Structure prediction request, 360 residues.
Amino acid sequence: MNRSLHALSAIWLLALSGCTAPAEAGEPAGAGTPEQAAAPALWNFEASEDAIRSGSCDESGAPMRGLLPLQLSVVALNAKQAGVLTARLPAGASLAGAWELTSPDPNFGGLSGLALEDETTLFAITDAGGWVRFGLDGAAPSAATVGYMRGADGKFLSGKTENDAEGLTMRDGIAFVSFERDFRIEAFDTGTCGASAKAVEIASLPSTYRGGGIDSNEGPEALTLTPAGSLRFGFEGATGSISPLGDVTGSGTAEWSGIPAANPDGFALVAMDTIRLAGGETREIYLYRAFDPLRGARSVLVWGPDDADRLTLSRPVLTDNFEGLAARALETGDLRLWIVSDNNFSKTQRTLIYAFDVPL
Prediction:
């Protein structure tokens, strides 16, 4: 087990032992300082749900208003491509499907976050402030609709500072989105009023870590709503190429947890998800990425503390800029994991969705 896996195992042990109060930036969790003892309780979904729904949707809002049909082509990888991908899977894991998505609609692209809305629907965000909603045919994406996010004033988010949406998590029709440039988390009741949902601010996120500033393009790529109902965020990069994790508190502030993500060497955190398994265990899943001109885009998907609980995607596998992650516990006891790539609205990149069934 390498250094990254040792660190990741520690994170899972903390998750299994229950939620801890958020630590000050740079302080080790469990240090027992007076500040930690007095730390406010974590933000909670059930306590905030009614206020989010009333603030996000007008009473006259029609279900799914503002989401328009999207012309979409979904093409499965060919046998050779699928074979190369399958050969990378660890023992017991299987490929549930792999597809390339294209559309003549200029609004399609830049998929930066992914979440499972329900058993038949995947929800995605774009880093231009867009929504893309996919039906599911088994594990495969199918018919899609598209729309754009609105601010608290009901107007469309405008410009990269406002609309650089990166992280996505959902519960009961409410989408939570983390943004780069202007580091923040906002909630949208898309389940009730679709793309006409107005943003409800949940928290502003820190702009410094351990005394150093964070680049505007290395912000909160990862966001997850835990089974207990708290919000955890992860930044792509900070001081010393660290991807710090943090929690939203009940007072609407955001605090670093004190434990960074267990980045593999040379990789940065871009997505995470958290689910509760049938036996009551909480499982955290992480997606990391790296890029350089020689090796291209590379990704590491991690769903457990052991070497067999990870998948590395790199050439000759057909890969791209994977940024979004969604997880579901299957009746078999396995996990189904979807990942999606951000093509940056570029004709030289691909929008790929891969689905894997992995054992626990």
User: Anything to note?
Assistant: The chain has six helices and 24 strands. The mean pLDDT is 88. The radius of gyration is 19 Å.
